[in-house]
Design a protein that fits this description.
By secondary structure, this protein is an alpha+beta fold. It is built from 9 helices and 12 strands. 33% of the residues lie in helices and 27% in strands. InterPro entries: Metallo-B-lactamas, RibonucZ/Hydroxyglut_hydro. Pfam families: Lactamase_B. It comes from Epibacterium ulvae.
């Protein structure tokens, strides 16, 4: 658990154990309510997130599912009474992936409204970043606290999923480097970080693009190149060895 406070708001980041690839859920605590973003992969880690909210002792004003990948929504089963708002396109992708396993608090939840809003008087902006690690990625920005919840736009210490359009993904991260609204990042995998993590992510994605798109590239060479470049990262057996061939350019 990682926690810090800024300008009257406390940010609680739950980081899953290594077997859950350090997937996160963020509980953002305001004066009277909390905002929950994502729920981790396993029912037991989702239950620990639910216990955190219970310990804080404030009602959930809004829960948000950032994107369609199961390491961020599967844990919602541990909090069945909390509806997870998301975009219709994200919900449709969850349905496609989960089939009859989709939790009812995702399947029957309200649609998330993008743009500027407030919770407990604190301004929040919800953005949608398309065609990066996932088809749609919800980002939450709290400009007064200078914090952005970027989820799987940035990983720390975990291999990145190859994504859909890496050049666009890189451009989006480059634009974030110059965004005046935030300087602290809450990630989808790993501990809270700062703007410097964007440079690490950009360099990772540039190398991944090079080893996947080169004229003599093969999945096997690409996997080895990423392991050689980032030997301490988690998830090689799945993120690299399974997903790189799955996302291989046709």
């Amino acid at each position: 658990m990682h926690r810090f406070s800024r300008d009257g708001v406390t940010f609680h980041t739950y980081v899953s154990p290594d077997r859950g690839l350090r997937a996160t859920a963020h509980v953002i605590e305001f004066k009277n309510e909390v905002l929950l973003i994502d729920a981790t992969f396993f029912p037991e880690t989702g239950a620990e997130v639910a216990d955190l909210i219970k310990h804080i002792g404030k009602p959930v004003a809004k829960a948000v599912l950032s994107h369609e990948h199961p390491d961020h929504w599967s844990g919602t089963v541990a909090m069945p009474d909390v509806p997870f708002e998301t975009l219709p396109a994200i919900r449709a992708d969850v349905v496609k992936e989960a089939a009859d396993r989709i939790p009812t608090n995702v399947a029957n939840s309200p649609d998330l409204v993008l743009g500027h809003t407030e919770i407990d008087g604190v301004p929040i902006e919800f953005r949608n970043i398309t065609h990066t690690e996932s088809n749609n990625m919800i980002v939450a920005v709290l400009p007064e606290q200078r914090v952005a919840v970027v989820q799987d736009l940035v990983f720390s210490g975990v291999y990145f999923a190859p994504g859909y359009d890496r050049p666009k993904w890189i451009r989006d991260l480059e634009s974030f480097r110059d965004d005046p609204a935030f300087d602290t990042l809450l990630l989808g995998h790993g501990t809270p970080s700062n703007r410097g993590e964007l440079d690490v992510a950009i360099q990772y994605l540039k190398l991944l693009t090079e080893v996947m798109d080169g004229p003599d590239a093969t999945p096997e060479k690409a996997v080895k190149a990423m392991q050689d470049a980032y030997p301490s990262y988690l998830g090689a057996d799945f993120v690299l060895e399974v997903l790189i061939p799955e996302y291989w350019p046709s």
